[in-house]
Amino acid sequence: MATTVVATGGKGSNPKTTLYVGGLHETVNEEILQGAFLPFGDLKDVNIPIDHATGQHRGFGFVEFEEKEDAAAAIDNMHNSEIYGRVLKVNYAQPMKIKGGDKGWSHQPVWADADEYLAEQAAEEEFSKLEKEQEDRRKQQVLQQQLQDGPDPMEALEAAAAQ
C-alpha cells in the first residue's frame, strides 16, 4: 500500500490537516462523516456545505484533523473506499480563494473593473464589425460570380413551367 507524504513546506509552512471528501451519498451527514474519519485521529472540525437552493448537501465535505500525520493516514485508508455504496475521493483540501483579490470584492471600488469592461466591449464591437465586413465581402463575391456565369438555365425552365 502506498503511503502519503506529508508536506510541511510550500505556501507558508502550514501543515496540511484539512481533507476534501467527495462522492458523499445524500444521506451522509456530519456525524456519519465524523464517525468514518475518527479512527485516524482527533478531529478539529467536520463540515458538509449545504446548497441554499435545495437545502441538501452537494456531495462533498471537509474533515480537519489535529495532526498532519492523521490526515495523511486518513487519505491512505479512505481514498477510493465506500460509504453507503458510493466511492469516496479523499484529498488534501485546496485553500479557499477569495474573489476580487486578497480582500474580496467588497474592498474594491465599483469602477475597479471599468477599464477591463470597456476593453472587452471594444474588442467585441471590433469583432462584430469584422464579421459583418467578411459576410458582405462573401455576398459580393457570390453576386459577382453569378453575373460572370450568366443567367441560370434552370431559372428559365422553372419560369416557363410556372406559366
Can you describe this structure in just a few lines?
This protein is an alpha+beta fold and 163 residues long. Helix content is 40%, strand content 15%. It folds into two domains: 18-92, 2-Layer Sandwich (Alpha-Beta Plaits), CATH 3.30.70.330; 106-158.
- SSE string: EHEEHEEEHH
Chain-averaged pLDDT = 83
Q: State the helical fraction.
A: 25-40%
Number of separate domains = 2
CATH class of the largest domain: Alpha Beta
Please tally the β strands and state the result: 6
For the sheet with most strands, the description reads: 4 strands, antiparallel
Our measurement of the CA-to-CA distance between the termini, rounded to an integer number of angstroms, reads 87 Å
What would you say the CATH architecture of the largest domain is?
2-Layer Sandwich
GO molecular function, one term: RNA binding
Pfam family, one: RRM_1
InterPro entries: Nucleotide-bd_a/b_plait_sf (IPR012677), PPIE_RRM (IPR034168), RBD_domain_sf (IPR035979), RRM_dom (IPR000504)
Explain what this protein looks like in three dimensions.
- The chain is of the alpha+beta class and 163 residues long.
- The chain has 2 domains: 18-92, 2-Layer Sandwich (Alpha-Beta Plaits); 106-158.
- The chain has helices at 30-37, 68-78, 114-149, 153-162; strands at 18-22, 43-47, 60-65, 82-83, 86-87, 89-92.
- It has a 4-stranded antiparallel beta sheet, covered by helices on one side.
- The protein is elongated.
